[in-house]
Design brief:
Chain A is an alpha/beta fold. Chain A is built from 18 helices and 14 strands. Classes of the chains: A alpha/beta, B alpha/beta. Bound molecules: iron/sulfur cluster (2 copies).
Chain lengths: 420, 490
């Protein structure tokens, strides 16, 4: 979750594997680059360019790895003086041997004066990624408070604030979703201070409580922090989704209502929907009546149900990976009749789901998309997108295009033995 | 454009319309602290070129027919490996997991294992389950041998003697803090042979091949060479029809690819006349085990890449099997030589950096030397006992003195290359950033190629693999640095 923050050295305190797999695999994109050669900004942004890991070995497991972590952090600050600070992550291994990352963080802070954050999110301490998010949220918040208390000069000065400041919480800038969302925000008259944590800087973390309103995008992973900011700083938040037309409309209205800018929202909605209407009609014409099965991380499922309906498609099955109980209530209330719902399916259940529902298309993550195809079912990686951005109005057209491409490819009519 | 052509609104917003303005993180270029560049001078690892042991064991386990790896550890350890397989091969990869929670850390993973194993076998009916340990389970101190016994009991109780005993369970201990993916695969090769291979009493007149973590295209090339020679072989682990499978629905459930080495084949590997481990670090352990246990001669490395190494492999196969090297293969050799002669003006004296897993890096180094290229830096992400000496041996024959990095990281390689310019880099996708930074072409080869398509389908081994790699090399150099008019006539 800290991964999208761009000006931090991200140190994974673990054996090498944990870090290698996560290195630049997600498309949380950023615009902040390290120089590749003098005068040349090329390559990938800083947060994806370097993978820094303590590489715990047998002796560290036996004797503890705190010293190694401290040394590694100090070295990387020397190697990458351009970074604002470090964010350190523990994993199962460092968690199990009980390395005290908090005191290491203090030491680094004292020695270097850099910003230091850390998250202890071992995969084994929770049922899923989602709990990891929760833990990280709480820890980040505690650290933010402490920095603000000790270094009040880092808090946003009064004169730099406006009454229309918002922060997008739980927006990770997948495939540059932000390039679509930010212009919309500008048009409705609000100022986006930062995002948590897509394309964010470390100082944005510190200044999280300096907003007038939080807009929570990915609801599961980030509601926690919005709640904490509300409790601690009395800053309200609203929930919003920028996926699909109706949901984006609603999001704009919700945000503007808070600031009394309703008219602006209506103007933007009218403009944007008119702009994309021809494209939308074109795709809807070709997609209507098609059936779809959805398998994604918790909060997204109910987002996608609405989206599919906007394209005239019919959701016949849905499954979640890290859904909590209230996720299910939401899904149930939004589910069309006859839709099959499965909680945290294993792979076999995914196969069965495809076999029984025979959807025309399967929206899923990377791991399932190749499985679905083997069964002759077009698939789409809606987790980390095929060719995003997918957010907002134009993003929705991208999404429709990718669905159409998946469904309409001639390859499927060449496949033998496919039952029609 | 004709006016009656209805415009198709292709996309909402194309990627290149996003206009991302790249902002520098600092105003000026900062050279890296030279003292901290060599890995030997620092603790921290930056941009590793190796991953964890369970990866290798899972790769192996998926190379068995109806084989499923079962990972004793947290979900993350499995999910990430599956991601990685999916990215490389664009194929599904089924891997089961014990789903450790907090209680597993406190009480040990026994219950998770037995229940998980039961569910796996009842639902998926695998022929063989590779039990893969992780950092967590090794630290907690799970006694896997007793867990496996208990799981077997549980299975027999529920399914009866025959069915309960049918699926083989092979344990591979892979605490990642003790070695890389290379070691994980190496250990798996021994574990499978130890657990399954039977005594040396019914000679089968076959050879065993432990290919290492090569690509489906390599295995198809290997099979082609053996077929041409008329040699029967067992291949452990044969991922060719696992990680490169046809789109041919409908599938029966649960989905298994058709390929993979059969359990019966591994059992019979104790009866073979010789074992060839193509990679000394990925399968060498297994070959040595068969040699010690059943006195089956082991031929370990080098990877049959380029001319001499392929010659050596075929010569050895010919000697142990008594089969002649046929004209068809000699012709392939001749065609590779012909290609080398026709491209020598593009390869001679070109400076090259090579990185990857130790065996492929060694194989590529020899081939590059055969092409008249000069290796400037050679790196293995995994440290091995012999890598430095192996490379020194090869380059010594040709009179070169490259920087040899045995078990370093890509950061050191990249920063070193800033002071020692090269014309081309050969390595996996993790080199893309480096190549871009140094403004030289990257020729992709090796295990972790996921940012371009089709590489897993094409061989680098054998004479034909050499042709392919040579074509890639020359084309990359030309794409990169030749003015158009020069390439009109090659
Ligand atoms: S390094 Fe260890 S903990 Fe990390 S993914 Fe690999 S096995 Fe799991
Ligand atoms: S589950 Fe734990 S050990 Fe495995 S990758 Fe996640 S944090 Fe690392």
């Amino acid at each position: 979750m800290g991964g999208p923050i761009t000006d931090a050295i991200q140190i994974v305190h673990a054996p090498v594997g944990c870090a290698y797999y996560t290195w630049a695999t997600r498309r949380h994109l950023s615009d902040q680059y390290a120089w590749s050669l003098p005068g040349k900004l090329d390559n990938v942004a800083f947060n994806r360019r370097y993978c820094v890991v303590t590489d715990m070995e047998e002796k560290d497991v036996v004797f503890g790895g705190s010293k190694k972590l401290l040394k590694s952090a100090l070295e990387s600050i020397k190697l990458f003086p351009e970074a604002t600070g470090v964010i350190m992550y523990t994993t199962c291994t460092s968690g199990l041997i009980g390395d005290d990352i908090g005191s290491v963080a203090k030491q680094i802070e004292q020695e270097t004066g850099k910003l230091v954050f850390f998250a202890e999110a071992p995969g084994c301490s929770g049922v899923s990624q989602s709990k990891g998010h929760h833990v990280a949220n709480r820890q980040f918040f505690g650290q933010i408070n402490e920095i603000r208390r000790k270094q009040p000069e880092r808090v946003t000065p009064e004169e730099e604030r406006t009454p229309y400041d918002i922060i997008l919480v739980g927006e990770y800038n997948m495939d540059w979703d932000l390039k679509v969302i930010l212009p919309l925000m500008e048009k409705i008259g609000v100022r986006v201070l930062s995002t948590f944590t897509g394309n964010a800087r470390m100082m944005d973390l510190v200044r999280l409580p300096d907003t007038k309103l939080n807009v929570v995008h990915c609801q599961r992973s980030a509601t926690y922090i919005a709640d904490m900011i509300k409790e601690g700083y009395d800053i309200p938040y609203v929930k919003a989704s920028f996926f699909g037309i109706q949901q984006t409309n609603k999001a704009l209205r919700t945000i503007t209502r808070h600031f009394g800018l309703d008219e602006l929202a209506e103007k933007v909605i009218a403009e944007e929907t008119a702009r994309i209407q021809p494209a939308l009609d074109w795709y809807r014409e070709r997609l209507k009546g098609k059936t779809v099965a959805i398998y994604v991380g918790g909060p997204r499922v109910w987002h996608w149900i609405k989206l599919m309906e906007e394209l005239g498609m019919k959701v016949v099955a849905g499954a979640c990976t890290f859904a909590h109980e209230d996720d299910y209530e939401k899904i149930n209330s939004r589910a069309p009749d006859g839709m099959l719902i499965i909680d945290n399916p294993n792979e076999f259940e995914v196969e069965e789901l495809l076999e029984t529902c025979k959807p025309d298309i399967f929206l899923c993550g990377l791991k399932e998309k190749f499985l679905g195809r083997k069964m002759g079912i077009p698939t789409l990686n809606s987790h980390s997108y095929e060719k995003g951005p997918y957010a907002g109005y134009v993003g929705f057209i991208n999404f429709a295009r990718d669905i159409y491409q998946a469904l309409g490819a001639p390859v499927w009519s060449l496949v033998n033995g496919k039952e029609e | 454009m004709s006016s009656n052509c209805q415009p198709i609104p292709i996309e909402g917003i194309a990627y290149n319309q996003l206009k991302i303005e790249k902002k520098p993180i600092v105003p000026e270029y900062v050279p890296r602290d030279p003292v901290l560049v060599p890995k030997a001078n620092r603790t921290v690892v930056v941009n590793p070129s190796r991953t964890c042991m369970p990866f290798g064991a899972m790769f192996a386990g998926l190379g068995m027919h109806r084989g499923l790896p079962f990972v004793q550890g947290a979900q993350g350890c499995t999910t990430y490996v599956r991601y990685t397989f999916c990215r490389i091969f664009q194929e599904p990869a089924s891997i089961a997991n014990a789903s450790f929670h907090e209680d597993a850390a406190v009480f040990g993973g026994r219950k998770n294992f037995i229940e998980g194993m039961r569910n796996l076998i009842v639902r998926y009916h695998p022929d063989v389950v590779t039990v893969v340990t992780t950092c967590s389970s090794e630290i907690i101190g799970d006694d896997m041998v007793s867990f496996i016994k208990a799981a077997r009991k549980r299975l027999i109780k529920e399914l009866g003697e025959e069915e309960g005993n049918r699926p083989k369970l092979v344990l591979v201990n892979t605490p990642s803090f003790a070695g890389s993916h290379i070691v994980g695969y190496d250990r798996a090769s021994r574990a499978f042979l130890e657990t399954l291979a039977q005594d040396h009493s019914k000679p089968n007149n076959r050879i065993n091949i432990l290919p290492g973590m090569v690509m489906p295209g390599d295995l198809r090339e290997l099979k082609h060479m053996l077929r041409e020679m008329g040699v029967d072989a067992y291949i452990l682990f044969d991922i060719s029809d696992v990680f490169d499978t046809p789109l041919m629905p409908p599938q029966t459930l649960p989905y298994y690819p058709e390929g993979g080495t059969r359990v019966a084949e591994v059992e019979d590997m104790g009866n073979s006349i010789a074992t060839f481990a193509l990679c000394q670090n990925e399968g060498g352990l297994g070959a040595r085990y068969l040699e010690q246990k059943f006195e089956i001669p082991a031929f370990i490395g080098p990877m049959p890449m380029g001319v001499k190494n392929t010659d050596l492999f075929l010569k050895r196969v010919s000697e142990v099997t008594g089969r002649e090297i046929p004209k068809s293969l000699k012709d392939e050799r001749g065609r590779l030589l012909d290609f080398m002669a026709d491209t020598l003006h593009h390869t001679m004296m070109k400076r090259v950096a090579i990185f990857g897993d130790p065996d492929i890096a060694t194989g590529i180094t020899r081939f590059a030397c055969e092409l008249g290229m000069e290796p400037v830096a050679v790196m293995s992400g995994t440290k091995t006992k012999t890598f430095t000496a192996d490379i020194e041996g090869i380059v010594g024959e040709f009179g070169f003195k490259p920087l040899i990095l045995n078990g370093s990281d890509l950061f050191e390689l990249e920063e070193s290359l800033k002071t020692m310019p090269v014309d081309v880099i050969i390595g996996n996708s993790k080199g893309a950033d480096i190549a871009k930074e140094l403004q030289v072409p990257l020729v992709r080869a090796g295990l972790f190629v996921y940012d371009r398509v089709g590489y897993h389908k094409r061989p680098v081994i054998g004479y034909r693999g050499g042709e392919r790699l040579l074509a890639d090399l020359v084309n990359a150099i030309m794409d990169f640095s030749y003015p158009e008019e020069r390439t009109q006539q090659l």
